[in-house]
Amino acid sequence: MASRALLPKSPRAAAYVLSRLSNQELIEAPRSEFVYVAMLERKGLDKKYRIEALEGLAKVRNTDTLTELFKGIQELDLKGEESEPVLRDLAALLLQNKPADLAAKRADLEKLAGGSQLPLTRHLGYAALITADASADKIWQRAETDPAKLADLVFSVPLIRDTGLRSSFYPKLEPLLHQPERAEVRRAAITGIAAVPGHDTETFNTLAGLVKSGTELAAAVASLQQIPRKSWTKEQAEPLIESLVAYLKNVPVDQRTGPDAVNAFQFATDLTSLLPPEKAHTAGKTLRSLGASVFVIHTIPEQMLYDKTLIVVEPRRPVEIVLKNDDAMQHNLVVLAPGAPEEIGQAAEKMAPQPDAFLRLYVPDSPKVLFATRLLDPGQQAKLAFTAPSTPGEYPYLCTYPGHWRRMVGTLAVVNDVETYLANHTEQKMTEWKLEDLAVDLAKAYTSVNLAAGKGFFTKLACAQCHKLGNEGYAYGPDLTDVFKRYNNDRADVLHQILDPSLKIDDRYRNYQFELKTGDEVFGMIVKEDADSVTIQAGPSDALVQTLKKSELKERQPQKSSLMPLGLLNTLSKEQIFDLLAYLESGGNVRAHAHQH
Amino acid sequence: MKKRVGCLILIALLATTAFGAQLTLNKGDHICYLGNALADRMQHDAWLETLLYARFPRLDLVFRNLAASGDEVATWHRSENFGSRDEWLTRTKADVIFAFYGFNESFKGPGGIDKFKSDLDKLLKDTRTKNYSGKGAPRVVLFSPIANEKINDPDLPDPKANNSNLELYTAAMADVAKANDVLFVDLFTVSQRLYAEAAKQGHSLTFNTFLLTEAGNQALAPEIFEALFNEPAPKDHLEKLRAAVTDKCNEWHARYRTVDGYNVYGGRSKLTFPRAGKESPMISNYDVMQEEMAQRDVKTENRDKRIWAVAQGGDIKVDDSVLPLVDTLESNKQDVSPYLDPEEAIHHMTLAEGCKASLFASEKQFPELVNPVQMNFDTKGRLWVAAWRNYPERTPTSKTGDSLLIFEDTNGDGKADKVIHFLDGLNCPTGFQFYKDGVLVMQAPDLWFVRDTNGDDHADWKERVLMGMDSADSHHTANSMVLDPGGATYLSDGVFHRTQVETPDGPVRNMDACIYRFEPRTYKFERYVPYGFANPHGRVFDYWGTDIITDATGNNSYFAPAFSGHLEYPAKHAHMKEFWERPSRPCPGTGLIYSRHFPDDWQGNFLDCNVIGFQGIFRVKVSEDGSGLKGESLEDLVKSDDPNFRPVAVDVAPDGSIYFLDWSNQLIGHMQHHIRDPHRDHAHGRIYRITYEGRPLLKPAKIDGQPVDKLLDLLKEPENNVRTRAKIELGKHRAGEVIPALKKWTAKLDSKDKNYEHELLEGLWVHQWLNVVDEDLLKRMLRSPDYRARAAATRVLCYWRDRMHEPLALLEVQAKDESPRVRLEAVRACSFFKTAKAAEVALAVLDKEADPDKPDYYIKYCLDETMKQLDKYTK
Fold first, then answer.
1. With contact defined as beta carbons under 8 Å apart, do A210 and A220 qualify?
2. Max CA pair span of chain B
3. What is the DSSP string of A223-249?
4. Between chains, do A500 and B281 touch, taking CB under 8 Å as contact?
5. Where residue B150 falls among pLDDT bands split at 50, 70, 90?
6. What whole-number distance in Å separates Cα of residue A432 and Cα of residue A437?
7. Do the domain assignments include residue B63?
C-alpha cells in the first residue's frame, strides 16, 4: 500500500500528513518518531501497535516506555474528550504495569490524578496510585475531605485490575450510597460499587432501592446493568419495571432516544426475562409502547425520492425520523392523515413560499398535517420526533415542496403487530405505471388472478375509503360495483381511468372551489343543491359535508383534476394490479366470480 | 486566394492523405457527423456540406451533425436521457458516418495510444454490425484531427508539444482504419500545409491554434472533398447554396443541442401540470417539449427540401406553415397579480433610509426591455442589458429572439431615452461581458466573441470562442459573467449539466455544477470552483480582488478563495460553511457597493438580490474573519410588496448611483411551473436606479477613447466599476504601448499616499490583463507592506506559475506570511502544482497557526482540499 517516503520536518505538518492516512496506511508507514506518535494516538489501532509505538519512542528519545506512556496520556488529555477511546487503550497499558514500576513513577501518577483535564485521566491516575500502593487506604485518607477528589477516586475503582483490591472497597463505598449530602460522591459510589466483586446481590438490591425511590435513577440503572445477571433478584424485577415504566412515561417523547432513557428501556426489557411468561408479555408490550423508534431517511439525489418508503411502528409509540437531504434540491418530510396527500399536496402547491410559525415552508395549515420537518437545503438534516398516532392505519409521508409530492412519498404504517405487518409488507419499489406498460399483458396475465389479494389492495390503497364495491367501502366517489358494465367490460379503459383519474370526471363527482364572500375558500363536490343553498362534501366522511348559503357565496370554480390521487397503483406490481382489477370486475363478489373460472 | 494544385501533384498528395476505397454516395443517403469541435464547428459555416450538395445535386442528401465539442471515441458526455450515440444514429438513419476523433484523446499522450486504438477499433467493428438506415451497415469515413497552428501571438501557445501527440494519434488512426478497411483522411498533414500557405499571406486559419475559423473551414473543405472523391471540389456559385445549408444547420442545431434538455427529455421533463381544456389529464414538460422537437424536425426537413432545390439550380420558399401541433396548457398558478405600472411599482418599494428609487427604463417606453438578466456599463457609460424575452427558451415558432440591448441616457436626467439593438435573434443570452473592442456573449452551448467593427453599434463580427457549455437547464446556464481585476472572466453550470469544452490544454469536463475561469486572451479555461452548488448565480470581486460566490437556489454565499483551489475532474470540493447567514432564498444576482455617492460605511457592502418570500435586495456588512470574510445583515437596500417584483441583478453606475434589474414576472420558478406555462411573462422588464438623498452624484469618468495615461490615472479611483472599465479600455491597446506607459506612471506614484500599494497592485493587474509577466513587479507585490496586496499578488503568482522562476520558493514565503489571508492564498496556489514539494509548501502554514488544535477554519479547509489534490504526488 501507500507509504510516505518523507514526512515534513515540522512536527505539526507531519502530524497533519499522518492524520490524513487511513489506519492501514499508518501501520504500513515507514517508522519514525512522528509515525510512532501517530500510532500511539490514533483511534482504533490494535494494542500491539501501541506497544510498538511506546518502544519505538523510548528508543528514539532515549527514555523508557512508561515515560512515553505518561507523555502520550498527557497529550491526549489536553486534546479533550474525543481522545477518550484511545485514552482507554492507554489506560489498560498503564495499569498492567507492575506495582513497583508504577510506584517508581509516583510523582507522574499524582499529576495525572490531580491535574488532568479529563475525568477519565484523573480516574486513571487514582487507579494507578492504588495499584502502586496495593492499597486504597493512604490515598483515601488524603482525598476524603475533598468531595471532588473523593469522587474521582471512587470512579477509579472499575479501572483497577486487581479483584482483591477492588473488593476491599465494599466497606468504603456502601455507606456512601446512603449519604445524600455529597451528591457527586454518591453518584461516583453508585457507579463504582458495581465493580466491587463479592457483593453482587446486596449491591443489586441496594441500587434497586435507589431506582424505586427515584434517587440517581440514571446512574443506578447504568450500574445495575453492570452487575452479572445471575445476581439479579427475581422479586425486584416487577417493582423495578414499574418504576422504570413510570420514569419513561415522564421522559418527553423527543428525549426518549437519549442515553438515559435508552438504558432504562433496555434494562427494563432485560428484567422482563425474570418474570413469568404472561407478565413478561404484558410488560414487554407496555415497554414497546414507550421506547422510541428511530428511522433515518435519505433523499435520493436527482430522483425526487426517499430511500425509505415504509416505516412501521406501534400506536402511541415514540418515533424519531431523521431526514438527511442528500439531494441538490430542497426537500421536507410531512406526515399526513391517511388519504390526505392529494389535498395537502395541492394546497402546498398553491402556497406562497412564506415560512409558517415554525419557520416551515410549504406546510399547509391543516389538521391533516400531523408532523412536518422544515424545508432542508441540500446537505442539511432534520430530526422529527413525535408519538405515533393511536389509530392504526397507513399514514403517508411526503415532500410538500411544489412539484414533489406526487412522487416523493412513503408510508408510516401504524399497526398493533409490527412483526406480522412486516412479514406481509415489504418496502415496495415505486413504478410509475403507464397504460402501455400494462395493456399488452392485460389479457394473458389475467387468467391467474388472486381475487382475495385484489380485495386486500382495494382496502390497502384506500380505494374503499372513497368507493363502494358491493357491500364494502364508503360512497364518496362513484360506486364501483358495476364499473365494468359502465366501461363496456373494457379492462384497458377501466385501468386507464385508474391511472389517470382526471381522464373522465362524472359531473356528479367534480370537485369545485367555492369562494366565499369572506374571502375564504372551500373545496368539495356538490352533493345537493337548491335555490338557496348548496351542500358539498370535501372528503370521504360524513363529517366533511357542509351546507353553504348561496347568499354567502361569491364564486364557484369547477376543478379540472379529479379528487382521486394519481399514482395509486405505483406501489403495486403488474400482477397485483391485475388482481385489483379482477376484484373490481367481480363487483365485490369474490366467490361468485371465482366460480366462473 | 487559393492556388490550384496541378493534377499530378494532387494525386501524389492524395496517396499520402487518404486511403481505402473512394466514397460513393447514393440517392437519399443520410450523412451523419460524429466527433469533436472540429466537426461541431463545421455545421456553423457548412463549407463541406455545401460542396457535397453542389457536386451531387440530384442525390437529395441529408446531413445531420451529431458532433459536440469535447467528444471522444469512448466519451459521450451528455445530460440525462439525451440519447446514446447509437440512438441518435438510428434516429437520423445514418447511411454514411463522418467521424472526426483524436484531438481530445491526444492529450493522454503516447501512453493513451493503445486504449485509443482499441476504442476506435471497437467503434469501427461495432458499426459494421449496425443497420441504422434500414439499408445496411453505414459506410464510415474516419478523419484525423487537424494540427495545432503556430500563430504569431504571444498570448497563444507554441503548438509543438500538442502536435507531436496529434501526429502519433493520426498515425494510430491510420493503422486502425487500414486494419478495418475504412476510408481515412489525414487532416493533420493537410492542415499543416494549409497553415503554411496561409502564413505566407499573413493569415491564420484558426483563432486559437486549434479551432478553425470560417475561412479555415473554407480552406479545409475542398481538401476533404478531393480526398473523398479524387476530384477537385466545385468552387463556383456556392454562396446561395451555403446560405440555404446554414439555415438548415441552425435549425438542426437548435433541435439536436436544444437548451433546457433536462426539461425537454431529462428528469424534469417528467413533471406534469394542468392541461388546457376541462376533461384532460395532466401534461408533462416532456409532452409539450417533444412536440416542439417534432416541429423542429419538420422545420429541418423543410430546409433540406430547399437545399435540394437550390442545389439543382432552382429555389423554393421554405414553408413552415404546417407543423405538428403543440398542446396548450393552463397555468398551475391561477392567483397571479396584475403587473403594476413601472412608476407605480416604486410606491410599493421600501428603501433603506436616505435612499430614493426612480425608474431608468421599462417595457412601457422600450417594449424590447423584457426579462433583463444581466447588465454591464460600457466604457462610454452606456448600460448594456441582456434581455431574455423568450425565457425559458424560444419556441420553434417564436418570431422575435432575445437581444443584447444598449440603453443610453443622452441628457443625463437618470432616465434612458434611447435604445440600440446591438445583437438580436438570440436564444438565452444568459450572460455577457466586455473584452477588448467587443463583447463575450453566452448563448449555450457556445460563448461568442462579438464585435462591431464599423462603429454603428450593431454586431457585425462573431466567433465562437468556447464551445460545449451545457444548458441542460436553461436557468442554470452560465450567467453573471464578471471580470476579475486581472481580466479573467467566469462562467458557470448548475446541477444536471454535462459541460465539455475543448481548450489548448485538453478537454475540460464537468458533471453538474461548477464555476469556471476563462482567460479570453489565452483561451485558458479551467474549473474554478467545482462544488455541489445547485445553481451558482452570484460572483463578485472586492476592492482587493477577493471574491464572494453565491449559489442561487439556497442563496448560500461563500468566501471563495478557500474553495477555488485546483481539483482534478471529477472530484468536487467538500462542503464549506457560508460566509453570511442569509435570511431568505433564492438569489439570482449579487453586487458590491463601491461608490462615494453613498456614505462611507456603505463602502464594500455586499448586495444580495432575493426574489421569493423576501422580494428585494439584502445589504450585508463584510468584515474580516480569520483568513476569510464574514457577513452581517444590515438594513435592506430595497424591498417591495409587489408580488411580481423580481430584482435579479444590481450594480453601481458610472455616476455612483445603484442600478438594479427587475425581471418583473408573475412566475419565478423554472421547475415549479410548466416550461410553457402561459403565465410565464414575455412582455415586462424594468431597470430602477437608487440614489442617496443629499449626497452629490459622481461625475462619470471619461473612459472611451482616452489616452493610455488618462486611463492609468483612473486606476486610482475608489469605484470598482471605474477601474474595471478603465482596464477594459486599456485592453483595446497593444501591450507594447501600455506597459512602458504603465512603468512611467508607476514611477511617478506617491509612495506616501495611503492608496500607494493598491495603485501598484492595479499596475500588476494591468499586466495580468494584458498577459505580460513582470517578475520583479510581482516579487515586489508579494512582499507589499499591505497584506491584502500580498494576498492578491499571491493569486497572480498562481496564474503566472508557469512563467516565473521558482514559483514554489516564492510561495513558500507566502505560506509563512504574518497574514492568514496571504497564507490561505499560498495554500490555494499550491493545489495547482503537481509535485510533492507543493504539498510541503502548503503544509508550512500549519506552523503559523496559533493553536494547532483549533486551526483557522478556511486555512484548514483549503489545506484539506489542496492535500486532497496533491495526495497522488506525495504518496
1. yes
2. 84
3. HHTTS-GGG--HHHHHHHHHHHHHHHH
4. yes
5. very high
6. 10
7. yes
**Separation in Å, CA B863 to CA A14, A17, B530, B833, B853:** 14, 11, 16, 14, 14
Q: Are residues A359 and A332 in the same domain?
A: yes
**What tens digit of pLDDT does each residue of A308-352 get?**
888 888 888 888 888 988 776 788 999 999 989 888 988 887 776
- In the numeric block, which cell numbers belong to residue B635? 438594513
Q: What is the pLDDT of residues B511-541, one digit of tens each?
A: 999 999 999 999 999 999 999 899 999 999 9
What is the domain range of residue A405? 293-424
Strand arrangement, sheet containing B446-451: B431-435, B438-443, B446-451, B461-467
Whether B847 sits inside 8 A of A79 (CB atoms) is no
Q: List B450's β-bridge partners, or say none.
A: B439, B462
A303 to chain B: closest CA residue: B267
Residue with cell 469522587: A151
Whether residue A41 lies inside any domain: the answer is no
End position of a domain, from candidates A261, A291, A321: A291
The minimal CB distance from B613 to the residues A4, A304, A353 is found for: A353
Q: Which amino acid is at B683?
A: A
Same domain, B518 and B597: yes
Q: Which residues contact A269 (CB under 8 A, 6 or more apart)?
A: A284, A287
Q: Say yes or no: A449 and A579 in one domain.
A: yes
Give the separation between CA B119 and CA B107, rounded to whole angstroms.
16
Give domain status of residue B698, yes or no. no
Nearest of B270, B266, B271, B264 to residue B291 by alpha carbon: B264
In three-state secondary structure terms, B283 is strand
Per-residue confidence band for B862, with pLDDT thresholds at 50, 70 and 90: very high
Q: Is residue A37 part of a domain?
A: no
Residue-number span of the structural domain to which B566 is assigned: 344-692
pLDDT above 70: residue B18:
no
Q: Which residues pair with B362 in a beta bridge?
A: B686
B553 touches chain A (CB under 8 A): yes
Could you read off the pLDDT of A566-582 as tens digits, one per residue?
A: 667 776 778 888 888 88
Same domain, A299 and A250: no
**What b/e string do you get for B200-216 counting C-beta neighbours within 10 Å, with b at 16 or more?**
eeeebbbbbbbbbbebb
Q: Name the residue with cell 483549503.
A: B862
**pLDDT computed for residue A541 by the predictor:** 65
Task: Specify the higher pLDDT residue, B331 or B654.
Answer: B654
Q: Tell me the pLDDT tens digit for each residue of B434-450.
A: 999 999 999 999 999 99
Per the CB < 8 A criterion, the answer to whether B150 and B206 are in contact is no
- Please list every residue in chain B whose beta carbon sits closer than 8 Å to the beta carbon of residue A560: 274-275, 278, 280, 330
- One DSSP character per residue, B17-32 reads HEESSPP---TT-EEE
- Kindly report the CATH number assigned to the domain that includes residue A380: 2.60.40.420
Give yes or no: residues B292 and B316 share one domain: yes
By CA distance, what is B534's nearest residue in A?
Answer: A328
> Does B694 contact chain A (CB < 8 Å)?
no
Based on the structure, what is the number of domains in chain A?
3
Interface contact B312, partner A, CB < 8 A = no
Q: Could you give the ipTM of this predicted complex?
A: 0.83
SS3 A572: coil
What tens digit of pLDDT does each residue of A63-90 get? 999 999 999 999 999 999 888 889 998 9
Give the Å distances, CA to CA, from A455 to A396, A420, A450, A451: 21, 19, 9, 6
Name which of B704, B818, B718 is nearest B759 in CA terms: B718
For residue B581, give the C-alpha cell: 447567514
Out of A12, A406, A503, closest to residue B847 by CB: A12
